[in-house]
Design a protein that fits this description.
By secondary structure, the chain is α/β, with parallel strands linked by helices. It is about 50% helix and about 20% strand. The N and C termini lie far apart (about 115 Å). The relative contact order is 0.07.
Amino acid sequence: MKNDNLKNQYRINEQIRVREVRIVGDNGSTVVPTRDALNMAREQGVDLVEISPNANPPVCRLIDYSKFLYQQKKRQKEMKAKQVKVEVKEIRFGPQTDEHDYQFKLKHAKEFLEEGNKVRAYVFFRGRSILFKEQGEVLLLRFANDLEEVGKVESMPSLEGKKMFIYLAPKKAGTKKQSQQARDREAAAEEKRKEDKGKGRETASLDEASAEMPANGGLLANAKISADALKKLKEAEEES
């Protein structure tokens, strides 16, 4: 059904009934009569696809329609994969929630917000506990205050029947949780990069040391030059 909707979203070839169209491609764009654009499509063995019908004139491309639909579906899939799905997580309190239970739920609410989810926290008043609604409101306000670094209040505490709600939204876009397998792969890749970098430094150090050490040929050449100089000096003394 989704593929059919995408397929029917664009007009192609003879379905395009305007007088002229703008053809866009790698070499820029040009406005031509629709009849000429259809002839160009036939000559190239492709389709005339209207990609922007509201432009003046409408914008079209010369492309194989099946290939065009494939590219569109692929692009939509990539965009969907990049999006973080926002969910509303519920946190329930009683009007006299103890400190340990409060901290436990506060920790989970913080994790939900850091992942990019919204939080709907509420206090449930059972029976005569509705008399403690002020106490429930204080608890929810404290809850929001303790989460102010990661969440912002969307609506203040409000009583709906036997429940008092407060809504929190994440301050930052959430990060999708990675599987343990993905985390292990990233850790192994990082370890390999560090190992390769270390080997590179060792090789560079050895090359520098080799460059600083004089070659045997250099020592022999220096020795030969010194012997020749002494010989010439001795001949000069004898002549004098």
